[in-house]
Structure formats: C-alpha cells, structure tokens
Amino acid sequence: MAEEPSAGSRSRGRLGRAAGAIASNARNPNLRRTQLSFLGAWTAEWAFTVGLGIVAYRDGGATAVGLVGLLRMAPAALLAPLLSPWADRGRRERVLVLVSTVRGLATGAAAVVVGLSGPTSVVYLLAALSTVAATLYRPAHSALLPSLCRTGYELASANVVRGLLDSTATVAGPLLAAAALGVGGPTAVFALAALASLGAAAALVGLRYDAPPRPSVPTVPLLRSAAAGIRAVIRNGDLALIMGLAVAQTLTRGALSVLTVVVAIDLLGTGEPGVGLLNAAIGAGAVLGSLGASMLVDTRRLGGWFAAGVALWGVPVMVVGAVPQQAVALAMLACVGVGNALIDLGGFTLLGRIAPDEVLARVFSVLESLVVLSMGLGALATALLVGSVGLRPTLVAVGVLCPVAAAMSWSRLRRMDGSLGVRDRDIALLRGVPMLGSLPLPAIEQLARGLQPVEVPAGGTVFGQGDSGDRYYVIERGAAEVVGDGSVVATLGPGDGFGEIALLRRVPRTATVRAAEPLRLHALLPEQFLTAVLGFPSSAREAGSAVDHMLGRYAPRTGVDAPGAGRPPGAPDA
Fold it and tell me: Which of 227, 417, 457, 563 could form a disulfide with 303 if both were Cys (CB 3.0 to 4.6 A apart)?
C-alpha cells in the first residue's frame, strides 16, 4: 500500500506549484510582457486616482471628491460594453496599446492643465476619458491572456500572477503618488501616471503569437455586437452564476468603502488615520493572498477556490461587528484581501475557459460594468442601512450576503471543476497530435468541447479506402491498422490522429483504418477541425507538411496526381 505523503513533502509540493506558476509567466515572453503592461497600467490608475482626489479636494472638499468619483465611473460603466466589441475584432493587444496610449495622453494633458493652473473642469473631463479607457483595459487584457497560454494550468498561473501584480499596484501606485506629491504636487503625479500608461502601451508593441482570424471591423451594428456578450452570459448558466457571485462580492466591496470609514471612526474610535489602516490591511492581505494562491494553482479546484474567495468577503465583516477591536478588524480585513486573491485565481480563470473566445472581451466587459454599478449600489445601500438600523446590524446584513451566495453555489461550482477536469484530459490528448499541439488554449479548448466519443470493436472498420471524409479521429485507447490496397502500412495507438487527408485536401479516404483491438476514439467534425488547423499559421504549416508527406506516399495508389491536388482555399503549402 502506498504511503501517505508527509506534511513536508506536501509543503514542498505546494511551494513547487507556486514557483512553477510564477516561472511559467516568466518563461513565456508574451505573458511576461503582457503582465508587465498590466502592472504599468494599474500603477498608473492608482497614482492618477490619488492625484485626482487631491485636485478635487482642493477644488471643493470631500463632496467634490465623491462627485468626481461618480462622474468618472458612470460613463465608464455605460461605454465599456459598447466599446468592447472592438476587443473581439482583430488583435487584442492592439486594443490594449490604443487604450494605454489614450490614457497616457489624457493624464499627460491633465498634468499640463494643472501645471498651468487651468480650469479643473477640463481635468475632470480628461479624468473621465482616462477612466473609460481604463475600464476597457481589463476586459481586453483578460480576453488576451488565454490566447497566450497553452494549458489551463498556465492560464490559472497567469491569473494568479496578475492578481499579485494588481495587489502590488494597489500599494505601489499610491506610494509613488505620495513621493511625486512631495516633489511637484498633482502635476508630478499626473506626469508619472502618464509615463506608466505609455510604458504599458510600449510593452505590448510587436507582441507575437497566433491570433485567430477575426474581421478587422464590426460586421454588425455596434449595439447588437455589444449585446452578444450579454446574451452569452444569459444563455450559459455557469457564466451567469459566476457573474452573480461577482455582483455579491462587489456589492460588499462597495459597502466596505463606507464601512471602513464608519467602523474606524465610530466603532473602533481610531479616527481618520484608522481608515487608512483598515484599507491598508485589505491591500496587505491581497498581496499575501496572491502569494498564497500561487501555491493553490490547480485546475481541478477552481470553482472551490472561487467560492472560498467569495465567502471571505463576508465572514470577516460579520466578525468585525461581533468583536469590535482594532487588531481583530485589521486581521479580518486582511482575510478579505486573501479572498480577493482567490477570486482572481478561480473566477477569472473559469470565465476565460467557459466563455467562447469570439465574445470573450465582451463577456469580461459585462463583468466590468457589473463591478462598477454594484460597487456604487453597495456603497449607497450601506450608507442608508447604517442610518436606519445602525452600524452593527449593517455589518451582519452585509457580511451574510457573500457566504450564503457561495454556499448556495457550491455544488454547481464543483461540477464545473469536474467538467474542466475531463476537458483537461481531452486537451492533453489533443496536444499529443503534432498539428494540434501548437494551438493556443482557446482554440484547442473549443476542439475539446466538440469531441464526439466513438467505440469500435476489434476487427471493426473506422472507415474504408475510397470513402468520403466526414470526421477526424484521435485514439484515446486501443490500436488501429492503416490498410492501403490490402496491405498494412502503419499501426496507430493512443494519442495518434488520423483522417486529416480527406478533410484538408478534399479527396476520398486514401486508406482503410480498422481496429486491431477495441478502440476508444474521439471524433471532430470537419468544420471544427478545419477552422482550428487552418486558422493558425503554426498548425497550418504542420498539417500541410504532414499531409503532403502522406499524399506523396498514397498518391500513386489513389489516383491523386500531386500532393497539392484538391487543396482547399487557405490550405498551406508544404
């Protein structure tokens, strides 16, 4: 009987996963540059927010700060879904370059206006423009990441690393802004944010990866195209569930923007400095949680970690109400930050793997709009609750929402984990086929969704020489013989694929394939196979080379005059 792994070996295994998660991003140059771009973009956003708050406070006090925050977010929440179709057309990194450039120019212009003592209304308009661009950045970035990954593990790792960078930017942006304020006031802060945004754009220029073919401009009206993301969420119960849990979490997030102030001043008696300490605790917990989440990267438990992350946004809030002590409050709000890291790991990875790639940016834009709107509603509802029922009952009411939502969703989230586990096995099988091995994750995931199981008994025929080609096959279990003109010319086993010649060259089957022993096959329909193989240069080259080699072998017997005969439009040359 196998021995149970020791605690030390389990710890080493978790540390190995953490190191592997970070290393997978460092080794992949495309992921590395994309993550550095995110760090620059979000550092710029936090620094700009600090500078804008100073300008607004000088202009009209705390009321002006609140109003400017609302004026920034409202246009972004409305416009981001309308603009998101552009991130699903063409190459997504180009959208990110454009967005970051617009943000850099807008914040740079704000630096000039403030430096020349210009009207603050112009600064606010530039801030709104920058925020609209910022709101579009994350959906496009989230939609780009899967195309740069080859496995679900790599995507989960990328989301963990991005969560760590997000938490780092939450700390670094305000700290850099504080340093810049001491040097040159808001003008220096805006200039710093502009440079960081332009650096985020520069990091993505010339990114090289296999992007699926997409039209360069929308082919349907903008509103109808934008609505495709909403329809995708409504029609897919798993996507709708993830969005619903995200709303519960961001309602609580909005509530905490009010509660941290009231708890610090009225419940704990720590005054205004205590507000900063409570928010810093959330940020510190997010950094530590991101490091911890890197030890949990495992595509078998994404739904479970997502549910745990959502629950951690609520339980600590109730504890703060029950035990009103500063040390307890700091520890509990650090747990909220840990929950945020688990949501980055589970929620973003699940969305990236469940939503169709052709509408992925629009689905993430739906999420971004829901985040902005629910945060505002959460803040407003909490302020009203505190005024009507008091602080402690409000802490209980706010705190119970996320744990209850997570508990009600647990079984379905775990079913998602199970289905992704099966799909990961299918993806691993497809990766073993040379012409499919180089496909990015969204493409090979789409193939895995379309696999049809086929059982063939020993001695049975999969297809005969001269038959028309209707499917492509990959062997999961068993062995098959390839028979040409009555002679066995090859033997195939698990991981081997066959049937591509008839599909790629539009010729009859060049040989008979029969089961030497019971076969467990997975089949792909022609449109699924051809779209994936011919849609990416690397797989198209591999397929063209392999098929031309096989046609050269079979052509004298089948009457095909040349390797290129019958080549479909867009098929590659050898």
Answer: 417
Architecture of the structural domain at 450-558: Sandwich (2.60)
- Fold held by 15-426: Growth Hormone; Chain: A; (1.20.1250)
- Contact yes or no for 105/48 (Cβ under 8 A): no
pLDDT tens for the chain, residues 1 to 574: 434 444 444 445 555 555 666 777 788 899 999 999 999 999 998 888 888 878 887 887 756 766 676 677 777 777 777 777 777 777 889 989 999 999 999 999 999 999 999 998 899 889 888 888 887 888 889 989 998 988 888 888 888 888 888 888 877 888 888 888 888 888 999 999 999 999 999 999 988 887 776 655 455 566 777 788 889 999 999 999 999 999 999 999 888 878 887 888 888 888 766 776 787 788 788 888 777 776 666 667 889 999 999 999 999 999 998 898 989 998 998 888 889 888 988 898 899 889 888 888 889 888 888 887 888 788 888 888 888 898 899 999 999 999 999 999 999 999 999 998 888 899 999 998 888 888 888 889 889 989 999 999 999 999 999 999 899 999 999 999 999 888 888 899 999 999 998 888 888 888 899 999 999 999 999 988 988 888 888 788 888 877 776 666 554 444 443 333 333 333 333 2
531 closest CA partner among 237, 213, 283: 213
Q: Whose CA is closest to 139, among 188, 84, 191, 178?
A: 84
Helix axes 302-311, 391-431, angle to 10 degrees: 170
Q: Give residue 504's identity as a one-letter amino acid code.
A: L
Half-sphere exposure of 314 (CA within 13 A, CB side): 24
CB 502 within 8 A of CB 513: no
Q: How far apart are CA 474 and CA 453, in angstroms?
A: 10
CA separation for the pair 112, 6 (Å, rounded) = 61
Pairing of strands 461-463, 452-456: unpaired
Helices (H), 355-453: 360-389, 391-431, 434-437, 441-449
Nearest to 282 by CA among 255, 302, 244: 255
Q: CA-based Rg of the chain, rounded to a whole angstrom? A: 27
Give the domain ranges of the chain.
15-426, 450-558
Q: Is 463 helix (H, G, I), strand (E, B) or coil?
A: strand
User: Among residues 301, 345, 338, which one has the least CA distance to residue 316?
Assistant: 338
Asked whether the beta carbons of 171 and 74 are under 8 A apart, the reply is no
104: its two tokens? 């850099």
Q: Where are the beta strands (DSSP E) in 493-529?
A: 497-498, 512-515, 519-524
* Closest to 208 (Cα-Cα) out of 538, 563, 574: 538
Q: Exposed (0-12), middle (13-18) or buried (19+): which is 145, by Cβ within 10 Å?
A: buried
What SS3 class is residue 65?
helix
Which residue is it, tokens 């993301």? 229
